[in-house]
């Protein structure tokens, strides 16, 4: 779990594609309450109501995202993301008791899961499509240098957390619970296939656990 401090922000004014109020936000299980989500062509911004504080995400930092259905653990459909914290400027809160050596090594590739729950859940496909369009306008300069090892770090760092939160999907539930673009589905299958091979130590057929990019 990676906790953060909300920082003082101003509403974005340039190239804002959409502004959506009454959006609940959860960051790695940390409930931030209700705020406004701003989708601009450069960044995604969430600001908590009545505080003028929130956080900003660059599109290259959003490595995995999708629309999730309600579940036993999460009663509300949501826009779900896995964020690469190395590509953001969010202020991470460190535990008072510090980190072990293993935790310090994991911190070299920190990720966080983020949920945005709109009051009107029928807006989820629209929000996801907007984010996809804006992400295409902001390609990740590191993509050309990405390798299988880097991709597996992202997945391994979130496996336990996603399984516990109900955001880890099987092939049987994929079509019902997660909506992906064709490109996102292909990327997801490739990443999960690489992870399955590393975990099993063989070239067996990739498992049926899926996330979304």
From TrEMBL:
Natural source organism: Bursaphelenchus xylophilus (Pinewood nematode worm)
This protein's record includes keyword Nucleus: yes
Keyword entries, A-Z: Cytoplasm, Nucleus
Domain of life per record: Eukaryota
Biased composition (Basic and acidic residues): 202-213
Predominant localisation class: cytoplasm
InterPro entries per record: ICln, ICln/Lot5/Saf5, PH-like_dom_sf
GO biological process, one term: mRNA cis splicing, via spliceosome
Annotated region (Disordered), positions in chain: 194-213
Protein name as annotated: Methylosome subunit pICln
PANTHER family: CHLORIDE CONDUCTANCE REGULATORY PROTEIN ICLN (PTHR21399), METHYLOSOME SUBUNIT PICLN (PTHR21399:SF0)
Ribonucleoprotein as UniProt keyword: no
Lineage: Eukaryota, Metazoa, Ecdysozoa, Nematoda, Chromadorea
Family: Belongs to the pICln (TC 1.A.47) family.
Function field: Involved in both the assembly of spliceosomal snRNPs and the methylation of Sm proteins. Chaperone that regulates the assembly of spliceosomal U1, U2, U4 and U5 small nuclear ribonucleoproteins (snRNPs), the building blocks of the spliceosome, and thereby plays an important role in the splicing of cellular pre-mRNAs. Most spliceosomal snRNPs contain a common set of Sm proteins SNRPB, SNRPD1, SNRPD2, SNRPD3, SNRPE, SNRPF and SNRPG that assemble in a heptameric protein ring on the Sm site of the small nuclear RNA to form the core snRNP (Sm core).
One Gene Ontology CC term in the entry: pICln-Sm protein complex
Subcellular location: Cytoplasm; Nucleus
